[in-house]
């Protein structure tokens, strides 16, 4: 399959900071690449280079087969961008903002109006459509900004943390809009701090840290890489933890972990549901009362933590310094 987005050896430094330290990426046509990484990893810098907003110090990039450095104007006509910071015009209404984008891209007025109406509906902005954008709440602006990026249905889209600041209902609504776009053939590069979002939307994930791609694969590959399944048991009272650890140890393929305050014991296993059944019988045979038991697989959060040493949503500004 042809790559709709391709980057080779991108380097960008700001003073002492190597924001991009040799980034290679390729996104096959019609697929979604999720770019994951802690704050400051270089995600937005990569998006800015790929969308012609920033010149790299070294490396090459193509969007829809067009060289980003040599033909930035052509690249811009083939892509849509929604940045991390909203770019709406405060002194226009929501509807005017969207129609203006359509007209900038030379849509016929009638089509621009129809597209604006459709997007205002999809993003739950129909009621507020004729109010000035400066009266919108943060989440409403965010949605308007996203809608603006979708006016022209470009073949390649870049979304930099599109759902940050959206409530769960609007996040779901946006996911649906994105899924529809991808079904219709759009290629998408998406950065996100929400691993659930990457899990749901991305065909492929690139984990970025310190300006480099440190892992690449689909969510399941990445999960498999950090280890397999585990049995998680919550015993009924703390006094039972010692006995439960003794009972579980023979089933483990690695180190057990115990969380005293939640009375949760986690043990890595191999063999899935069969082991789970054995463990239940074992605990029952020893009269160890349990509140909960289950078979767990690593989440994408675990993968992120394992690969980068940061938890995804905890690394707010200042905390990772
Ligand atoms: N214009 C700039 N001038 C100086 N330093 C910059 C500039 N833009 C980015 N940086 C630095 O480059 C590094 C990467 O920043 P970038 O914005 O790409 O990170 P990010 O992965 O998007 O982070 P976040 O998750 O917080 O959005 C950071 O150390 C940042 O401080
Ligand atoms: Mg960013």
Automatic annotation (TrEMBL):
<feature type="domain" description="ABC transporter">
    <location>
        <begin position="5"/>
        <end position="235"/>
    </location>
</feature>
<keyword id="KW-1003">Cell membrane</keyword>
<dbReference type="InterPro" id="IPR050763">
    <property type="entry name" value="ABC_transporter_ATP-binding"/>
</dbReference>
<keyword id="KW-0067">ATP-binding</keyword>
<dbReference type="InterPro" id="IPR003593">
    <property type="entry name" value="AAA+_ATPase"/>
</dbReference>
<keyword id="KW-0046">Antibiotic resistance</keyword>
<protein>
    <submittedName>
        <fullName>Daunorubicin resistance protein DrrA family ABC transporter ATP-binding protein</fullName>
    </submittedName>
</protein>
<keyword id="KW-1278">Translocase</keyword>
<dbReference type="InterPro" id="IPR003439">
    <property type="entry name" value="ABC_transporter-like_ATP-bd"/>
</dbReference>
<dbReference type="InterPro" id="IPR027417">
    <property type="entry name" value="P-loop_NTPase"/>
</dbReference>
<dbReference type="InterPro" id="IPR017871">
    <property type="entry name" value="ABC_transporter-like_CS"/>
</dbReference>
<keyword id="KW-0547">Nucleotide-binding</keyword>
<dbReference type="GO" id="GO:0005524">
    <property type="term" value="F:ATP binding"/>
</dbReference>
<comment type="similarity">
    <text>Belongs to the ABC transporter superfamily. Drug exporter-1 (DrugE1) (TC 3.A.1.105) family.</text>
</comment>
<dbReference type="InterPro" id="IPR005894">
    <property type="entry name" value="DrrA"/>
</dbReference>
<dbReference type="Pfam" id="PF00005">
    <property type="entry name" value="ABC_tran"/>
</dbReference>
<keyword id="KW-0472">Membrane</keyword>
<keyword id="KW-0813">Transport</keyword>
